[in-house]
Amino acid sequence: MSTIIRNQEEIGSLQQQRVLRIIVLGIVGILLFRLYQLQLFYNVELGRKSTENSLRSIVKEPIRGYVFDRNGSLLVDVGPSYTLMITPAEFDRRNLPLLSSLLQMDQESIEERIERGRMYSRFSPTRVKRDIDFKTLSAIEEAIYRLPGVTYQVESKRYYPSGAYASHLLGYCKEISDVQLARMGEYYRLGDLIGFAGLESSYETMLRGQKGYEFIAVNARGKILGPFEGGQNDVVPKEGFDLILGLDAGTQVVAESLMANYRGSLVALDPSNGAILALVSKPDFDPSIFSGVTPAEEWARLNNDTTKPMFNRASMTRYPPGSTFKMVLAAAALEEGIIDEKYRIVCHGAYRFGNRTFKDLHVHGSTNVVEAIQRSCNVFFYQLIHKVGLEKWAEYAHRFGFGQSTGADIGEETMGLVPSADYFDRVYGKGKWTQGYLVSLAIGQGELGVSPLQMAVYELALANGGILHQPHAVQFIRNKFTNRVEELQHRTRSVGLSPRVIALIREGMRRSVNEPGGTGGAARIPNIVVAGKTGTAENPHGDDHSWFVGFAPFDDPKIAVAVMVENAGYGGSKAAPIAGLVMEKYLLGSIQRYQYKPKIAPKPKVDSTTVITAVQ
Amino acid sequence: MFEYFKEYFDFKTFLVTLALAGIGLISVYSATYDAGAASIFQRQLSWAAIGFVAMIVTAILPLKTIYRLVGPSYLVLLLVLLVLLVVGKTVSGSRSWFSLAKDLGGQPSEFAKVASLLALAAFLSRTTTIISDPKHLIAAIAIIVIPMGFVLAQPDLGTSIVFFAMLLPILYWAGVDNFVLAAILSPVIVAAGALFGTSFFIISVIASAALLYVSRRNRFIAAVAFALTLAVGVSVQFVYERLPSYQQKRIMTFLNPEADPLGSGYNVLQAKVAIGSGGLFGKGYLQGTQTQLNFIPEQWTDFIFCVPGEEFGFFGASIVLILFGVLLMHGIKVASASKNKFSSIAAIGIVAVLATHVLINIGMSMGLMPVVGIPLPFLSYGGSALVANMMMSGLLMNFWANRKEY
């Protein structure tokens, strides 16, 4: 050995030893310092991350609230719906073809949903297909052992057992859009349903309930190891509040069937409180098409339909009201003392103003205010508007709620248009418009825009003696936290008309329906006195719109109604009979004049109790 | 008898090795407990037993026998590496290579490391070797670079880094001129600096220029070495820009793991979370959520340090670090005390290999080092690595016992 191994003196000098020792101590020192940094300095932050890591919260969907009508019958029901979920971290892409054939959904769509879910959290199940049918569900169940990461979730789905669509009033739910998701913040997540229109949207926060969360411990592969800390942190989902409407389902069904072949709208209110008894906008849609997965072609069909079935004609339109608006002018003139009940003019069938002649339909002869309403004498109102003036007329229109939103809880609405001097100045220029512009306004034509809902509110105030109630669909809410039924408060104000004035106008409206020479005879109901007013609104784009507003019974009004049928011509012949039948149905419980058959077959009822049990 | 034992039995290496291997078994048990990998602990336990026997055998074999075995073992392992490389390449890619390597009971490169450092030590300790002779220097470097090339071609970047890292301390210990060391080191510094961006590149260029200047013997040669260094740095940048984007991404992920928390940086981030959440005393054995819930893939191999880090906290993890520190410092002591040049150089080689593993592995777990995937000695799961490491401990014990022999 001595020949090949030399004395160590030439190697390993003290300096070499020192250098290597310093390097080793340096390495250990650096690592110790880093250890100190991570474990004692960033400990809190990293500890929090560690907890988040191993915890998975499983969202427990609450049951959305039910909607009942005024008699307690179910308008909107909830049933179970199965949603296929995929946890991105666990899903094996090689299973895409299998899943695609089971779901009958193309691979790209499935992948896209998974990718979107992955962006949110790779460990949380993301919705891939909503409302899968039972057959598909059983096929998936059979193959589930081959499909890691695939689960399903029971969610609630809307059913409409009453036979009424009430689509524009109830609204519908739809999968939350990306824009909403960005705006609404914390509560919602991808794939959640959210109220999109009508009550579903207005009362979203009450209807939706509160999501529950189940906290479970998982490993990195997403394998569930059991409840986290024995489930003591779990949050039980809270059921959504139920809405109890003022709507009368039976009247709604009748109203919908009466309007079935028309484009237009019908709004019926309870004059005592402003509750919506029926609200129809035609054409409409079956809200149940939104309850599961809405096929894209169905969605496109609804949106591209030129008759705009999604558009709420009851609150979103701005029609001229025609003669139904004459009572506003009458009220202004009487209340301001410009005329009284004895004031008369002689109608020659036409009115000259400047060099223009405004025609009337008939020659009415000597006419007072009551007769003018009864017979819808245009000449009477033509000359009256000049006595009252634009300003006073507009003031009374505003008192009746025109030119402003009604505050109804059914979603968007237009304010309509009640022109003022400022308005004309703006549109035509100062001094470039004349008093002649007012003549059309006197009979509800020209630059005047109202919605059927506003007309119903106006009618409600005439019916109840001058009290304007905020129209509303929801009267009570069943609070699931306290389990109490809470009444909602609504605005009420006086129109500010003396009883004498109201009585004169009402008398005119009574005669309009019930006396010879009245225009609204078609609205009569056997044994019940109806009051009302017809209107025929000139339409520059086509046939005239047919209007009728009225209330009944005359002495103790229980229903105020406004009907507008687009392009249907004379108000007395189209809108008035519909209003009459709707009031008859509401007041008498059924239509007794002839054998009446609803045009829409009521859908089979879903037994709500079994459905609820299934969801729970 | 006891006096003899006290004088010649290397208690320090023996006990520290057993302590580290024990912590390793405890950690592997925790990392695989509930991960559906219980058999891994069983296997590691058997490997520990085999490793223990290997350590004792290596410790009591006559030094001369070891010296004689070095050459043949080195050549056999070179051949094995080459064969596996060729077979692995021709039989459809690296996947079959791994399964083949597993069938052979481990990775020969673990043993090749030990054989190479011993071979280099043997070469440098020959009386006929004159280290200042460039031919001998190149031969010495070749002893390491050849197996390193085979390992790099596997491809196993981590292990090849270890080969390179043991070269410098061994040459330094053997008395190679500082300028040569600087000339070997400076291209590596500049290449690393080039990847960190312009400012780091400039700093690394200045640092290597300073290294070369301070250690220079001849201005011209120093200038040539500096020019080569610069060329390496520039070509690294040039190559980096032409790398496929996934490889660029891998490098960038090392530089900033948080940028891609669910991609390649995932392991590092989870490892940092595991260690950091341990705090002062840890979450308790088998209570680490990161560890028990398998947030760190294959934690029992490269990220085993997270287990003591998370479950025993700063207290436990620093004990591991201190044990390594004690072993490494003692290795230097063994090298210094050895009158025998071969064992002195070999001891430094062992220290260098272990230190590199510790620095890279633990540094990687704590986000200080790139994820190059080399195991933590004695702790990480892996039969061949454990046996090879325990053989190195056995060698240190052997060198200590024979330190007075010439």
Structure description:
- The complex is a heterodimer of chains A (616) and B (406).
- By secondary structure, chain A is α+β, with helices and mostly antiparallel strands.
- Chain A has two domains: 56-78 and 157-219 and 227-245, Penicillin-binding protein 2a (Domain 2) (Alpha-Beta Complex), CATH 3.90.1310; 249-588, Beta-lactamase (3-Layer(aba) Sandwich).
- In chain A, 36% of the residues lie in helices and 20% in strands.
- Chain A is built from 21 helices and 23 strands.
- In chain A, strands 2, 3, 4, 5, 10, 18 and 19 form a seven-stranded mixed sheet that branches.
- In chain A, helix 10 runs antiparallel to helix 20 (571-588), helix 13 packs across helix 15 and helix 15 (378-399) crosses helix 17.
- The model of chain A is unreliable at 1-8 and 600-616 (pLDDT under 50).
- Chain B is mainly α.
- Chain B has 18 helices and no strands.
- Chain B has helices at residues 2-8, 11-32, 38-60, 63-90, 93-103, 108-125, 134-152, 157-173, 178-195, 198-214, 219-242, 245-255, 266-276, 289-292, 306-311, 313-337, 341-365, 383-401.
- In chain B, helix 4 (63-90) packs antiparallel against helix 5.
- Classes of the chains: A alpha+beta (616), B mainly alpha (406).
In short:
Chain A has 21 helices and 23 strands. Chain A has 616 residues and is an alpha+beta fold. Chain A folds into 2 domains: 56-78 and 157-219 and 227-245, Penicillin-binding protein 2a (Domain 2) (Alpha-Beta Complex); 249-588, DD-peptidase/beta-lactamase superfamily (Beta-lactamase, 3-Layer(aba) Sandwich).
Overview features:
heterodimer; A: 616 residues; alpha+beta; Penicillin-binding protein 2a (Domain 2); Beta-lactamase; 2 domains; seven-stranded mixed sheet; 21 helices; 23 strands; elongated; disordered C terminus; B: 406 residues; mainly alpha; 75% helix; globular
How many strands of chain A? 23
SSE-based structural type of chain A: alpha+beta
- Do you know the CATH architecture of the largest domain in chain A? 3-Layer(aba) Sandwich
- Based on CA atoms alone, the radius of gyration of chain B comes out at 22 Å
Backbone shape of chain A: elongated
Mean pLDDT of chain A: 85
Percent of sequence in beta strands of chain B: under 5%
Helix content of chain B: over 70%
- The rough form of chain B would be described as globular
Number of domains of chain A: 2
Top-tier CATH class of the largest domain in chain A: Alpha Beta
Output the radius of gyration of chain A: 35 Å
Low-confidence stretches of chain B: 90-98, 260-264
The share of residues in extended strands of chain A comes to 15-25%
Q: Count structural domains of chain B.
A: 1
Oligomeric state of shown chains: heterodimer
| Distance between the ends of chain A | 86 Å
